[in-house]
What we know:
The protein is α+β, with helices and mostly antiparallel strands. It has a single domain (2-77), classed as Hypothetical protein (Metal Transport, Frataxin, Chain A), CATH 3.30.920. Helices cover 43% and strands 21% of the residues. The chain has three helices and five strands. The strands form two sheets. A three-stranded antiparallel β-sheet has the order 1-2-3. Strand 1 and strand 2 (42-46) form a beta hairpin. Helix 1 crosses helix 2. The radius of gyration is 12 Å and the shape is globular.
Amino acid sequence: MIKVKKTLNQILKGRSDANIAFSDLINLLSSLGFDMRTKGSHHVFRKDGIIEKINLQKDEKNAKPYQVRQVRNIIIKYKLGD
């Protein structure tokens, strides 16, 4: 749980979007109640009450920076992770 909070804080600060581990981002979304569906290299996350779906692909071992920004915007918009 400490790693999830650390990842959440790192994402919300927005200083190191290129350095978020893909597995940490998946764990964060799972802890926030998102359901994951995987099809090929695409990991799609949905949650009741959230209009947007999150579609992630791995970039080496890290998440892609633009996808981290999308996750940050959804966390802020829906006030998740409080």
